[in-house]
Write a structure and sequence with these properties.
Oligomer: single chain
Mean pLDDT: 88
Helix content: over 70%
Radius of gyration: 18 Å
């Protein structure tokens, strides 16, 4: 039975790995490069690959135990929160970038884009905090064999 509980915890471990590695570790390592595009693109690409693997496993887990299948689907639903945060942050930054094109002063445009980038990152940061709390709880509960419908925060 503990093997089933271990299998049920894998989707939450994968999502927590995504958050830890691609949102904290990789940006921290690449921060010294001063190439913002490298930090954003590697983190985003790695995170999207991890989310894609969660989606694949959630869709192809029919031959799994019901508990394991339910936890893969829960991790996929929670991954959608992160994807939604990416889209909203990109929209905020894209709209702001477009509106700042009218700014004549190049120095002021750079400052305004920097502030805009921080606002876009606030949404992703808040989503990451919520995911850490939810997935930490789900990880513990999956190891106890609790079905997602019965889970409590």
């Amino acid at each position: 039975m503990s093997e089933i509980y271990h299998e049920a915890s894998k989707p939450h471990e994968r999502l927590m790995f995504n958050v830890a590695i691609f949102h904290f570790f990789v940006p921290a390592i690449l921060f010294g490069t001063r190439n913002l595009w490298l930090i954003v693109s590697l983190s985003l690409l790695g995170s999207l690959v991890m989310i894609g693997s969660i989606a694949y496993k959630a869709r192809h887990s029919q031959n799994q135990n019901a508990l394991v299948q339910a936890h893969w689907k829960l991790a996929w639903r929670r991954s959608l929160y992160l994807l939604g945060a990416y889209l909203v942050a990109a929209a905020i930054f894209g709209i702001g970038w477009f509106l700042l094109m009218a700014q004549a002063d190049q120095s002021m445009r750079f400052i305004q884009r920097s502030v805009l980038g921080w606002f876009a990152l606030v949404l992703i940061s808040l989503t990451l905090i919520v995911l850490i709390v939810l997935e930490g709880s789900a990880l513990v509960q999956s190891r106890k064999g609790i079905m997602p419908a019965d889970m409590k925060l």
